[in-house]
Design brief:
Layout (H helix, E strand, L loop, with lengths): L4 E6 L4 H17 L9 E5 L2 E6 L2 H17 L7 E2 L7 E3 L2 E8 L5 H15 L3 E6 L2 E6 L2 H13 L8 E3 L3
Antiparallel strand pairs: 1-8, 1-9, 2-3, 3-6, 4-6, 5-6, 7-8
């Protein structure tokens, strides 16, 4: 048996699930009566999402449809960033709302997670930042599972977390 166990904390987005959610949202927008003749649409281009409608309220309704589809497909809403308030901006005769898919842990988020792990578990668990992910290692697998539970319970982390490479 290995003397030390570890796992990686990452923030990745399943792009196929996001594309499926966007396609489902576009289908629903095209068939719903309340979206007729308002120019409502949702598009995915690479890492960016664009929502359009003729009024601010309809644009927010498109956002609600998209968020519902993302949740049903198992994509965390923390992985899509529409800005602070998510308010549509007027662009000519239409309102637009632009969002970005967030992947990878930022340095400040990784430092925040590492500090939380060190504060709660002391020296029995060692977090190490490796680029856009965080490796957590310990001699006890029970400690590692406790770290996972603690990170899942923390609502202050502004990233969709996944745990990979559990060894």
């Amino acid at each position: 048996m290995a003397s030390e166990s570890s796992f990686d904390v990452v923030s990745k987005v399943d792009r196929q699930e996001v594309a499926n959610a966007v396609n489902q949202a576009a289908k629903e927008i095209n068939t719903r009566f309340d979206f007729r003749n308002v120019g409502a649409s949702v598009e995915l281009n690479g890492d960016s999402l664009t929502l359009k409608a003729s009024s601010e309220e309809r644009c927010l309704a498109v956002l609600d449809v998209l968020q519902t589809k993302l949740v049903k497909r198992g994509v965390s809403l923390k992985s899509v960033d529409f800005g602070e308030e998510a308010t549509p901006k007027a662009s000519g005769k239409e309102y637009r709302l632009d969002g970005v898919l967030k992947e990878g842990l930022s340095q400040e988020t990784a430092k925040k997670i590492a500090k939380q792990i060190r504060d709660e578990f002391g020296k029995s668990v060692k977090p190490v930042i490796q680029g856009d992910e965080l490796r957590v290692s310990s001699k006890s697998r029970d400690d590692l599972q406790a770290v996972q539970r603690a990170l899942k319970a923390n609502e202050d982390i502004d990233a969709a977390l996944q745990f990979t490479n559990y060894r």
